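Hello Y.,

Per our agreement to keep a running log of every chain we model this quarter, I'm adding this entry. I've kept the format consistent with earlier entries: sequence first, then predicted structure.
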Amino acid sequence: MSAQPIAYGDVDHEAALKYAVQLIDHRWAEVIEGRIVLVSPMWDHERLVARIRRQLDARIDELGCVSGSGNLDLPGSPNWYLADIAVVPDDLADGAGALTPDQTLLVVEVTSESNGDTDRVTKRKRYAQYGAPLYLLADRQSRECTLFSEPHDLGYAVVDGPHPFGTPIRLPKPFDLVLDTTRF
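Predicted structure for the entry above:
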């Protein structure tokens, strides 16, 4: 006697995958192009994230925003991201389980050996498609920063960089500040 496969009918696979990734206890996890990826940042990665966040903090407060590594959903795609830093208006953070990239003011990703190409290629493309207005990529492997702006379906129209670490990076409105990258 052979076992018959169970028919699940009209299962929403995107919703099921995104729900499952949220249930992984005590681990950070993302869904990247349909694959669950466990995230375990190393201390040198976290140090660079902290150096960027400290430079943004005062301006984030002035703008009435909050920054963090909250969930970013990309509806209609098999993607659920945890940005290294996402800056969002404070009122959107109230009770929000996940936001979308177009609800951010800035998304920052810092590369690691294990995910560098994901941040450089896949996330850059997806953040643009989903309307993240500013995407800052701090590439630890090439020791460069690049700021992407003016998102559209095919990518970002404006690319500022790559600039070697040590080069000041100007963040446009609403931030209007210059990031010091000398300690990156």
